[in-house]
Every structure is written in C-alpha cells, then in structure tokens.
Amino acid sequence: MRAYITRRQFLGSTGAGFVALGYGAAPAGAADEAPVPKRGGVLTIGQDENPIGLDPHKTAAFSTGNIAEHIYTCLLRWDETSSHIEPDLATAWEKPDPQTFVFHLRDGVKFHNGNVLTSEDVKFTFERLVDPATRSPWVSIFSVIKAIETPDPKTVVFRLASPFSPFPNYLATIKYSAIVNREDVRQRGDLVKGGAGTGPFMLEDFRPNSLIRMKRNPDYYELGLPYLDGLDFRIIPDEASRMAALRAGSVQLTWLGRPDSATQMRDVPDIVAPDPKSYSRLMLLEFDQRKPPFNDVRVRRAFSLALNRELITKVVWRGFAGLTASLPPMQAPFAVPSGEVLGLPYMKEDVVAAKALMAEAGYASGFEAVFAVSPANYGDVQIAQIMQQMVGRIGIRIKILQKEWSQLVADFQSTESPMSMAGLVWGPDPDTNISIRLDSNSTVNPGKTADPVLDELLAKARQSYDEAERTKLYRAVQQRVADMAYIITPCAAALRWEMWSNKLQGYRAVPSAQRVYLRQSWLQ
C-alpha cells in the first residue's frame, strides 16, 4: 500500500489504518473570509521552563521538546487534533508487509547548515537513537528496527523484527524521532547546545535560563512559510509574571498551569484564552505491588472504591478535568470515554464495600502508608490531600511525602515509596505510557506489575494494525487494570492552558501542547 502527496493534499495514515487527510499551508477550512497572513515580525513567548539541553535524542523532557519542535521535523507529523498523522519529510510511504515500512522523501529539503536531506541522514538518525553512547531514553522503542536500507537518496526502508503498530506514530513526534544531519552531529559531537534541523526556524542564540532566539528558515520546504521572522523564548518560571507580561504585551504567547489563573485571563481585553479541548495529562498513582499491604488486590480495590473521583475533578480542577481510566480521554477511540469510567470495576465510590474488603484482607484496623508526590505541578499535592481524607475513612492513614520533581521521578521510576503519583504527558500512541508503566517486560514498570494476561493483551495490541481490533484490546486492558486496581487514575487534566495576544493570528492550540502551528502564524 502506498500514500502519495500533491501540492494541496497529502494522503496520510494513522498508526492503525491509513486514511486520506487534507493538507495546505493555510489553516484547514480557510475560506474567503479568513484573514490574510502577513510576513515579518518576531513573536515573544513567555516560556515556563528552561530546556534541559537542545539535543532531541538525549532527553524525554517536555521543556526540550517544545523548543526542538521548531528546529527539527520528522518523517511524519500530527494534525491539529493530535490524533491523526500526516506526511512531512516523507511525502509518501508504503507498508508492503507488517514488518516493512518504505518512506519516500520530499525533494529539495535542506538542513539549516545547507546540507541536502538524504536517506542516509534518516538512517543515521535511527542508528544514533539506538546507540548506547547517545543514551537516548527511547532505545527500547526503536530496538524493534532490525535493519534500515537506503536503496537511493530519497528512499528509506525500515525492516522490523516484529509487527509494531505504534511505529508511524513515533515517526511523527519530535520528542522521539527528530531527523538530524549526519555531518552536523559529527562536527558538533552532540546537539545539546543546538543543531541544524529542517524545521521552520533556526537557532540563533541560546542563553540558559534567560533566552532562546530563533530566526526564520528561508529554505523551509513549505512554500511561503513561516510568516514570522523569528521567535524569542523568554524564560519566565513564575506564573504570575508570565500573566503580567502577557497583559502588558511584552510577550504575545504563553501558557499557564492553574485553572484559576486561566480563568482570570478569560476576560482580559485583547487576550485569546480558549478552554482546553481535551485532557491529555493523566494523573497516575502507583502502588508497590511487591510488598504488603499493596500486594493484596483486595487492599488496592478498597483504595479505589474509597475515592470519589468526580469530587476530585470539581475541587482541584474547578471542573477543567475529566474522569479517566488508564488511558487519557483524548486517546479516543482507544480510551474509555470519561462518561463510562465509573462503570469500570471498583471505580465508583462505595465506602461500605471498601471497608468490607479491608476487613477481608486482615486490615480492619487499617494501616499507615507513605505517599510521595511533588509540588512542582499544580494539582498533584491537592489531589494527594483529598485522597488522604477519602481513604482515611477506611483506615488507610496516609503520610504525604513532598519531593522535588527530579526526586519524585526517581522515586516513581524505582518504586522507592509504597505509593507515589505523577502526571504523565501526552504520548503519541496508546501503547506509549501504558506499556511502559504496566508491561512486566518494561524496564520501568514502576509498580512492578506482573500479569501474564495483561502482557498478552498489550502485545496483541502493539502488533495489530487494525484500529477496531486495537480499540477492543485497549478497552480490555483498561478493564483488566481497573479490575486488578494496579494503578489509580484520579483524573486527567489539560497539559497547559495556552493563551495569546489577539495580534497573533493563525495560531492553534493543540491537545498535545505542541506549538508547531507557529509555522503558519503571523503578527497583525
């Protein structure tokens, strides 16, 4: 099967079934009344976090990805719903069998250093990603690649060790597969301080904790884009300061993490502050399932039954959150819809049943347990405190242990505390977060889940290219996870609240919080 591109239309695919998608440099559906784009100007962005280096292959940090996404591009890319993929550096591709993908590269693409993109750069990119010397966090994902062939400068053939349906979705995500230039990497050694990508903007200046400056790529391959002459990212960690800067006009785009902050900005004149369209940040509480008391499924089920999830979303997120199973609601059709979550086993509050399970497990008098969480992100500690009160009703006496974010991540990944909780960012495929967290073969598997039934369901879902079958399998996974209460997912919320000056035109906020539509935005 092969997908082709014309000047005005791409034929693209999802991770499961290939479908046709509209494409054009102007916003989709642009009609005669649409505003006319204007060239020139530098957009100033209030950035909340300093990136942990700029090498897109060396870190999973969100802060690096939302800078690198302007410098680099991938073989494929996501549409504005963050749910369908489109061609990008590859204009057409084929899947002649379940273990082979053939990509045909766009003509005339240049890296920022002037070198022409070839299939050898693509091959080098993936060889670098799996090279232990790179220390990429994605080695296990791309270890499925058995061989990469480059029959000519415009054709790349990936041969996989086994069918792997998430593969196209990873190839559309900068965080996982930004295409780099072989000669650029060899000259620089690494890309921590910047590199030559194929993206719409070129790195001009990087002053850590202060400023990241980019200028327009005059050779960008989408005709006429970008409209802006440049992007200035000012590092402003304090949320109130970012709000003030947006009000004053010293920045024209920023994002916030608190729903009350976002509400305050709704009525500010000349500010565009849309509500999030979907919820991609999944809150995940893990239990250490190796030791008592959480090695007993009756205790975990009791914990789940003691929670009133609807109350958590109302109190903490002012309603700007949704009920969720182990996949966030935005990953439709694979995720259980928010409206059906309370129908899953042990998800609806029932304190009487919870107390009965505690007694049956030998914990009628309850027990004490440490719950690790970080104050780095809005909502996490507040959710922990509410859950502390709720499970206290069945005798689980929680001691909340607040940790710095890096310490919490280490705790979460290495299962140091009996309970810990973190928010997971958007993943490009339903398999991304759920397999890392719950497959017994995962090197992370923070709760140390070991369930052959679950492993088999996840393996089948990864190897199926049929969307309907994958949906059925991931729904079964979520049913199994809820029934065994391996994890607790109190809610899912927006990753960020984006807002901008009405002088910024043509911009769109997307559920994954990728700001890639700056390539077709302009300043009035």
Structure description:
With 524 residues, the chain is of the alpha+beta class. Helices cover 28% and strands 22% of the residues. It is built from 16 helices and 24 strands. It has helices at residues 62-71, 119-130, 139-142, 167-170, 174-177, 182-188, 239-248, 259-265, 297-305, 309-317, 351-360, 380-392, 405-414, 430-438, 452-463, 467-484, and strands at 9-13, 18-22, 42-47, 76-78, 85-87, 90-97, 100-105, 145-152, 155-160, 201-207, 211-216, 230-235, 253-256, 271-272, 281-287, 321-322, 367-373, 396-402, 419-424, 487-488, 492-493, 497-501, 504-505, 522-523. The strands form 6 sheets. The protein has a 7-stranded mixed beta sheet with strand order 10-11-12-3-13-22-14, with helices on both faces. A hairpin with a 6-residue loop joins strand 4 (76-78) and strand 5. The longest helix is centred in the C-terminal third of the chain and has 18 residues, at 467-484. It is globular and about 70 Å long.
Give a topology summary.
Elements: E1 9-13, E2 18-22, E3 42-47, H1 62-71, E4 76-78, E5 85-87, E6 90-97, E7 100-105, H2 119-130, H3 139-142, E8 145-152, E9 155-160, H4 167-170, H5 174-177, H6 182-188, E10 201-207, E11 211-216, E12 230-235, H7 239-248, E13 253-256, H8 259-265, E14 271-272, E15 281-287, H9 297-305, H10 309-317, E16 321-322, H11 351-360, E17 367-373, H12 380-392, E18 396-402, H13 405-414, E19 419-424, H14 430-438, H15 452-463, H16 467-484, E20 487-488, E21 492-493, E22 497-501, E23 504-505, E24 522-523
Helix pairs in contact: 9-11, 15-16
